[in-house]
Write a structure and sequence with these properties.
The complex is a heterotrimer of chains A (about 290), B (about 325) and C (about 425). Chain A has a two-stranded antiparallel sheet. Chain A contains 12 helices and 2 strands. Helix content of chain A is about 75%, strand content about 5%. Chain B is mainly alpha-helical. Chain B is about 70% helix and about 5% strand. In chain B, about 55% of the residues are buried. Helix content of chain C is about 45%, strand content about 20%. In chain C, a hairpin with a 2-residue loop joins β15 and β16. The relative contact order of chain C is 0.12. Classes of the chains: A mainly alpha (about 290), B mainly alpha (about 325), C alpha/beta (about 425). Chains A and C meet through α1, α4, β2, α9 and α10 of A and β9, α9, α10 and α11 of C.
């Protein structure tokens, strides 16, 4: 039973981490390697607002998510826009911006165990014989809520529909008056906000470290690759697959096999079906 | 009054195109000067640096230069974006280290064996992924070193997280330096030669349009395999050299830096030139040392420099220098 | 378009020129300011990590104290100490160890460091650095990290080559010996005997885990599980559930990664009826209580060396903790602050007795070291240069077990320096 419950929690965490990355990639075909940096940026800025500036918890969360989405949009508008369409340069540029942000925190001394966010609801509950804390249940709730609201947003609002249009056919949507750069800015701002939301719900489980940023990036990429880059259902499938396989590997093989299993999944998926489990197959683009 | 800049070839460049170059000493000098500058510059570099520690840094820059060379060769001439630098160094280093620590085989044999054997292993692992294109291949090659490091850690083999210390090292710093420097020069010009021969033409054709090459009844996987073997041999050589440099092998031979650094060096030096990434490595490795005084801040500087170069100029140093050498610019009125 | 391209080009030039200027500035900065004949202490540590910062603080504090008193007396001449701290990044994942080795080499060659103290902190880097140190014949005393037993083994096996290396942090083998005795005395008091071991996937933790398992099983304990977690794990629920189902009474974690605070939070939230007691490096920090909102309560943390929490049994620790609090506004965070503080005094003592700074004289002086530090009496084993530990703080160096009670770290073991007795969490009773 605990495998089922913690596997689910783990999968939702992975899905949350990947959602922002997947959104940006899906809309603008831009692999935002600064994702992990934006994630810890929210963590640290919330901590700063809460403990140094003295704003209440909800206020600091809202403020930091706002700030990070502005930063995310600005990164695209002023920097990444110049290298648009060159995948290698995009990745190098966004990764180096991300590393710069993360290492800036390390330099400023954000490196002790003292950086932690308080959970929203304290305490734990007995669920079908497994003790689980409220925060983890909340993560499942938030994860599902975000997925549903994103679906509603992309299917029923004008902005959301234009995002999807750009993702599906860039040229046709440009002809119908949708500007790709504007949608990309929106996508990056939303992606950053998603990274922020996942940060504030997940970070209270542990502490905020600079390395978290790198881990988040690797996990987000892993989920997106296994599930299929640019596919929403793929993110879900990938997260479930990786989330449960991690927990199963821990339970059956021992915890030190956890990462090996994940890496094997990525490599095998890429070799067999590079577009991922549920990615749209573009045979000619991905293999010879 | 509108002005614009125009750029023209120097007269001497035009005169030295083709066979007429050898008709005058000046023409020959013009042609040979960059090459001689590069070779002589590399060879005397160890003599002009202030301390022995900097000579060590040059050796390390050499190893990074090898990795950058591989990256540039595979990316810009074969069309395989390979981030497997760490994979090569790790495999090469561990083979060399194991041979040396388990059976006491001397360096003279371990490095060549690690180079060839490591290249075989790397190629074997990369073989199934060769048909994959672009970013997908890049990610697979990035994941392999992580996987290997985790497996070694999980199985606790080859010294586990402690590594294998106490391998034999080179007799002195001069051997270290003047063994690797000629190798670099040789490989740089060797690769330059290879890419301009028939083999290289096929490789570049694969990069441009693999379907067309396939349609001409050429087995592209076989050509790619050969290219990857060549690349991983050079990478494994760097790894084996690294192992004996400090007499030590450990998990950090699979470190991500070995995969990322070559990209940076290529960006700085200029992709598609082979010489450029080497120069890039010789700029970046000492730069990283100089920035050490900043402590943790130096990674920030480093990545900002990289981001700045990628975003504001995608050209690289060598193409820029080449242009200045061969062409001049002037303002003209429109 | 053309004009724009050119302007961009100027931006780039400006950018490059400014970087060049910064670099030149750095070169000047690093060269200025030399005192008359100082003794240079090279400190290669990972400054981007708490461990490195902790060690840096201890060393800085001791050096300032010594310099305030005029410096070190070398054969009648007072020479000040000069610190050269270099960032090795050796604790960061993804950074090759060569980076740390270059740092050590540059400290020796360029900064003319007479001694290397402090790090490198990661075992892998420190083991590799031994060859660099022996090549340059530079005496080094490790005082942060590196608990791997391989270190002393190499010195003992090849004394002539590695005699330049000393270590005060201790190795896991004597630590485990002490730990097993501690567990025995807890069993005598509380009567529990079922343990669940969780260790991090690094050499020293694995060595600790396996030898602890053997040691405890030999004494008749029941080891319900032994799990190895890779560095950076953020979920411990499976292991904790197993421990809970098996009705373990002690949870023995052995971790030096920061994510281990997640383990403690999960333990508290799942109300696992087992007392966490082990080497949990991240929980040594005084600030942990506030950061985890008290979820570390009742967990017992092993410090490789005592001294970072004041105790009357070791008089020096009280002065050290007070001085640290005065300078940095907090109590010492981990054991490395205490060890790194003492290491400077060990070196000062050795230099004054040797009346010289040349390696051979210092080595024989260090081997005869016998002084009181913040963690008891310091003496080195002559063969392996291992610090002699586990006993009376008046006779040997000691580690300590501190329990988190009401937001304070209180020493519960060893009995000689304990200030309070062990308590159990309410849900275990």
């Amino acid at each position: 039973m605990h495998i089922l419950i913690f596997g689910l929690v783990n999968s939702v965490i992975l899905a949350l981490l990947a959602s922002g990355f997947a959104l940006v990639y899906g809309v603008s075909r831009l692999a935002n390697f600064a994702h992990g940096a934006l994630y810890i940026l929210v963590g640290f800025s919330t901590w700063l607002f809460l403990n140094r500036v003295g704003i209440n918890y909800i206020g600091s969360i809202v403020l930091s998510i706002l700030i990070v989405s502005i930063i995310g949009g600005a990164i695209y508008r002023f920097l990444l826009i110049r290298v648009k369409g060159m995948p290698d340069s995009e990745i190098i540029a966004s990764l180096s911006i991300g590393i710069a942000i993360m290492e800036l925190f390390r330099w400023r001394g954000f490196i002790s165990e003292a950086y932690m966010l308080p959970p929203f609801i304290k305490g734990s509950v007995n669920l079908l014989g497994v003790m689980i804390d409220w925060q983890r249940l909340l993560i499942i709730g938030v994860g599902l809520a975000i997925m549903v609201s994103l679906w509603l947003f992309t299917h029923h609002t004008k902005v959301g529909l234009s995002l999807r249009a750009i993702a599906q056919d860039k040229h046709a949507s440009m002809m119908s008056g949708i500007e790709p750069d504007r949608t990309a800015v929106i996508a990056l701002a939303m992606g950053s906000a998603l990274a922020g939301i996942s940060a504030v719900v997940i970070l209270p489980l542990g502490n905020i470290t600079v390395e978290t940023g790198y881990m988040v990036l690797i996990n987000a990429i892993a989920v997106c690759i296994v599930g299929g880059l640019g596919s929403w259902a793929g993110v879900f499938a990938g997260a479930l697959l990786l989330g449960f396989s991690q927990i199963l590997a821990t339970a059956l093989l021992g915890p030190h096999w956890q990462m090996v299993v994940v890496l094997l999944f990525i490599i095998i998926t890429l070799i067999i079906k590079p577009s991922g489990l549920l990615g749209r197959q573009k045979e000619l683009e991905e293999r010879v | 009054m509108e002005r614009r800049k125009e750029r023209l070839d120097r007269g001497i460049k035009v005169r030295t195109e083709g066979i007429y170059a050898i008709s005058s000493w000046r023409g020959i000098a013009y042609m040979a000067f960059p090459t001689i500058l590069f070779v002589v510059g590399l060879l005397i570099l160890p003599l002009v640096v202030p301390t022995m520690a900097w000579q060590r840094i040059i050796v390390i820059a050499c190893l990074f230069a090898l990795l950058a060379l591989v990256f540039d060769f595979l990316t810009n001439f074969v069309g395989i974006v390979c981030l497997g630098g760490a994979f090569f160094t790790g495999v090469g280093g561990y083979i060399s280290g194991l041979l040396n620590s388990a059976w006491g085989i001397p360096i003279i044999f371990t490095i060549p064996v690690a180079t060839i054997g490591g290249a075989l292993i790397c190629t074997l692992f990369l073989l199934p992924c060769l048909p994959i294109r672009g970013i997908y291949f890049a990610i697979v090659s990035l994941m392999y070193p992580l996987l290997f490091a985790r497996v070694i850690q999980a199985l606790d083999i080859f010294g586990g997280t402690d590594g294998l210390p106490g391998l034999s090292t080179f007799p002195n710093i001069w051997v270290e330096l003047y063994l690797i420097l000629p190798i670099i020069i040789l490989l740089t010009f060797g690769l330059k030669r290879i890419v301009s021969e028939d083999f290289g033409i096929v490789l570049r054709a694969i990069r441009d349009n693999d379907q067309a090459v396939r349609a001409s009844n050429i087995n592209i996987t076989w050509f790619k395999t050969k290219a990857v073997f060549l690349g991983s041999a050079i990478g494994c050589l760097a790894g084996a050299y690294m192992a004996h440099l400090y007499g030590w092998v450990g998990l950090s031979l699979f470190a991500l830096d070995f995969s990322i650094f070559p990209i940076a060096a290529t960006v700085v030096g200029g992709g598609g030139t082979l010489v450029g990434p080497v120069i890039g490595a010789f700029i970046l490795a000492p730069l990283s040392e100089m920035l050490r005084a900043f402590g943790p801040l130096r990674v920030v500087f480093y990545s900002l420099i990289l981001a700045g170069l990628v975003i504001f100029s995608t050209q690289g140093l060598l193409p820029y220098l080449e242009r200045k050498y061969h062409q001049f610019e002037r303002w003209t009125e429109v | 378009m053309k004009v724009k391209a050119l302007r961009m080009n100027y931006g780039l030039r400006l950018f490059l020129v400014s970087i060049l200027l910064i670099l030149i500035g750095v070169c000047f900065l690093t060269q200025g300011g030399a005192l008359a004949q100082p003794i240079v202490l090279g400190v290669p540590i990972s400054r981007g990590y708490p461990d490195g910062v902790d060690a840096e603080r201890g060393i800085t504090l001791a050096v300032e104290e010594i310099n305030a008193k005029g410096g070190v007396n070398v054969a009648g001449k007072m020479r000040p100490l000069k610190l050269e701290i270099s960032d090795t990044r050796d604790l960061e994942p993804g950074v090759p160890v060569a980076e740390a080795l270059v740092a050590v080499e540059r400290l020796i060659i360029e900064k003319k460091a007479n001694f290397i103290i402090g790090g490198p902190i990661r075992s892998e880097a420190a083991l590799a650095a031994m060859d660099v140190l022996s090549k340059h014949k530079t005496v080094s005393i490790l005082s942060a990290g590196v608990l791997s037993p391989a270190y002393h083994k190499r010195i003992a096996e090849n004394y002539d080559k590695y005699k330049y290396c000393f270590r005060t942090t201790g190795s896991v083998i004597p630590m485990i010996g002490g730990a097993v005795n501690t567990f025995e005395s807890i069993r005598a008091k509380k009567g529990f005997d079922k343990v669940f071991i969780m260790v991090q996937d690094v050499a020293h933790a694995r060595a600790a885990g396996t030898s602890l398992k053997e040691g405890l099983e030999k004494k008749g304990w029941k080891v319900l599980g032994y799990e190895v977690y890779p560095t950076g794990t953020t979920d411990f629920s499976v292991g904790l559930s197993k421990a809970k189902e098996g009705q373990a009474q002690y949870l023995i974690p052995w971790f030096d990664m920061p994510e281990v605070s997640i383990l403690m939070k999960q333990w508290y939230d799942m109300k696992v009826p087992a007392l966490p007691i082990g080497y949990i490096h991240a929980l040594q920090d005084e600030g942990t209580w506030k950061a985890t909102e008290g979820k570390v309560a009742y967990s017992v943390v092993l410090y490789a060396k005592a001294g970072s929490v004041a105790t009357k049994a070791i008089p020096l620790s009280e002065g050290f903790v007070a001085a640290h609090k005065k300078k940095y506004g907090m109590e010492p965070r981990s054991e490395w602050t205490s060890t790194s503080y003492t290491v400077v005094y060990i070196l000062k003592d050795a230099i004054e007795r040797a009346k010289a700074v040349d390696p051979e004289a210092i080595i024989s002086a260090l081997e005869k070291t016998d002084l009181m530090g913040t963690y008891g009496r310091v003496r080195f084993d002559h063969k392996s240069h291992q610090i002699i530990e586990n006993g009376d703080p008046k006779e040997t160096a000691v580690g300590m077990w501190a329990q988190w009670i009401d937001g304070k770290r209180v020493i519960v073991f060893p009995n000689k320096i304990a200030t309070r007795s062990l308590e159990l969490p309410p849900w275990m009773k």
